[in-house]
Amino acid sequence: MPARDRLSAAFVNSAPVGKHCDGQGLWLVKRPDHKGKCAQWMLRITIHGRRREMGLGGFPQVSLAQARELAKEWRGVARAGKDPVKERERQAREAARADQTLRTVALEAFEARKAELKGDGKAGRWFSPLELHVLPKLGGVPVTELDQRDIRDTLAPLWHTKADTARKAMNRLNIVLKHGAALGLDVDLQATEKAKALLGKSRHEAKNIPAMPWAEVPTFYATLTEQTPTHLAMRLLILTGVRSNPLRHLRLDQLDGDVWTIPGEAMKGRKGATSDFRVPLSREALAVIELARPFEREGYLFANVRKGVLSDMTLSQHMKRAGQEARPHGFRSSLRDWLAEATNTPHEVAETILGHTTDSAVVRAYRRTDFLEQRRVLAERWADHVTGGAGQVVKMVGAV
């Protein structure tokens, strides 16, 4: 029989850096980066002709006696013909399935919905209202025991001060409860509605993002004279009327002549529309893109100097430093107001410029056009205005 119980508690307590064998495959591993008494227990087992290594925990959290008991247990699993590593993983999965806490069910619901969440799923923004405001208090509560009073007490601090955040958290909770019901758990599907009744009507008044009057846009645009990613991104944002996210993530392979095609999954606010979105580029917009090309990295036109792409905060901070109350997203309102007040653009064309969907799914199914040619004319007129043109009323010839 192989030697066993080679180590003593005193030696383990002051073991030098290195690997120390206790016998029968149990090792104490202490690396140079392990400060003080910190070390790791490791069990080496040969199963089905190959050697496996599995951690048994750290010392001093796991004592020498406990490590020996764990090693004995897993050696028994190996003698029964099972891979200890895989067996432990199987046990962990079973324990997770038995875990009915709100946190576990919420994470399952998030994973199940990722495919339909577009960028929000990838970035985790869908989950953040729960992660930040609900799970710290209720994460350990079994989802079957969650009731309206728990939800009310948790969201009450936000209900009248951060209404949009509270609304998102409530909606996410409702989805999690439905997911729990789909798993066969006995949850109260009315808990969120009951909680809303207990909380009452929110006193918070939503404020629109500050926007610059369209007549003042040319003056601001004229200040964007530097050939930097920030100035160029701001110029293209104004010229195209797109949201910040697809603008900052613009890739060169999305450009084809004077058309920029934004992938459908990158578009927000187009419920019921999954196709890509084409943006006509004015001559001014094309000139801005050419100026930005030297800053391209890994295919992204507006790359960050360190990693990734230009941040949304960078654009907002630029406007703040310039003494502007308006914010980058507000230029979409500037463009929409210009369309309404300085042109006779039909409603559906104006809304399409902003990437909004109009009418019912049935109407959209029969109306296949995205008004690209009409939008191309308007893009040039808007560019003329932004760069100091007259901004005269635009006659939409042949508009439907």
UniProtKB/TrEMBL annotation:
Q: Signal as a keyword?
A: no
- Keyword DNA-binding assigned to the entry: answer is yes
Ranges of residues in domain Tyr recombinase: 207-379
Which SUPFAM superfamilies does the record cross-reference, listed alphabetically? DNA breaking-rejoining enzymes (SSF56349)
Q: Which domain of life is it from?
A: Bacteria
Sorted keywords for this record are: DNA integration, DNA recombination, DNA-binding
Q: Which InterPro entries match?
A: DNA_brk_join_enz, Integrase-like_cat_sf, Integrase_catalytic, Integrase_DNA-bd_sf, Integrase_DNA_bind_dom, Integrase_recombinase_N, Phage_int_M, Phage_Integrase
What's the short name of a Pfam family annotated to this entry? Phage_int_M
Q: Give the family per the record.
A: Belongs to the 'phage' integrase family.
Protein name (Swiss-Prot/TrEMBL): Tyrosine-type recombinase/integrase
**Source organism:** Tropicibacter oceani
